Please model this.
Amino acid sequence: MEQALQILMQNARAEENTLLYMLHEEARFDQELFWQYVNSIVELTRLTANQPLDRELSSAVSFTYSKIMEYLQWHQLDRDVYEIKQFPYVYAHQIVNLLGNVVNGFYQGIVPAEASFDEEFPNPAFTGEMAEEQPAVLQLGYYKQHTNVHALGFREEDGAYRIVLNEEEDRDLADSRLSRREVEGTYLFTAPDASSAYQCFHEWVMENSAPYRSWRGVHRMNVNEHVIEQQPLTFVGIKQTFSCVDGENLRGIPKMWQDALADGIEERLNGFNNGAIPGLVGICVDQRELHDNQMEYWIATSHTGEVPEGLVSIELPASHWVVFEADGLEPEAIQRLWHHIMTEWFPSTSYQHAGIPELEVYRGHGTPPQVWIPVKSL
Model:
């Protein structure tokens, strides 16, 4: 029991050479450490099945399970904002089911039998072998509303990503055979990592989406936008500097949000909000004129008065702002909004960018996020 308990508690503390440490600090899935964690819970279940639940033990099981699922959920998002290296995507279903069954078994005092483990993703405690390593897979997800277009990307040995795009049943397509013939296929994108490959492919899809014509016609976003004028805005929050090389910022910013929210930054910042802009804001500050390929990113809230301890402040000059509201709450909604702004709104507007940072505004409470674009006075 001592060894199993040690493995579980080390994971709960995210100590080095544990599954939780690898997922959080290295963003890497280690199959051996995964099975150590799973089998520690199985062993503890076997030894405590006829005893009352231990509070500390139950807390460690619940905490570690919730954190693992959190990391896996980030990895499965279409944006691939949290990329787990060496994640065996083909076994994702087995991994999620297995974790749930093992944890439920712990609370119910039921020890899973050998037969309950998947032959394709074998438990080395029974077989002595682990599943074969699988190529890195990038889930690219959906790109066009009212279609079921999706793609998978496989990393090649030379670092390129082999993107397989195909189109499943879509009754809205006026000529599915034509669309399938023009779009379905395999494409190669050279990219240093999955996030950069995603970005390359996303841009390609948006530029080459002509075949996606439905009976309804080309989809246009129903964007709610209006212009407001603001006095100078002061924000307090936290900031980090990211390199824009090899997509480091694309991976780092989501992880910054993830870590900050886990540390309770949302509740703390909301306590300092002065009501000028409700909720939290993300601020991108372009630093390329001062430092090559660098940017500064803030998670902040509008504030008046002294800067609270442990936070820093930034002031933006008075400006006219065009405020856009996303058409949904899901993470992809703000991506669609940014694409609309950059590819449809800006090319057709008479406004000019004011040259200060844009804002992403997250008001919370089930309210769609906004993007604020600073423009020069009318």
User: Anything to note?
Assistant: Residues 55-76 form the longest helix (22 residues). DSSP finds eleven helices and twelve strands in the chain. Residues 77-82, 141-149, 167-184, 209-221 have pLDDT under 50 and may be disordered. The first strand starts at residue 137 and ends at 139.
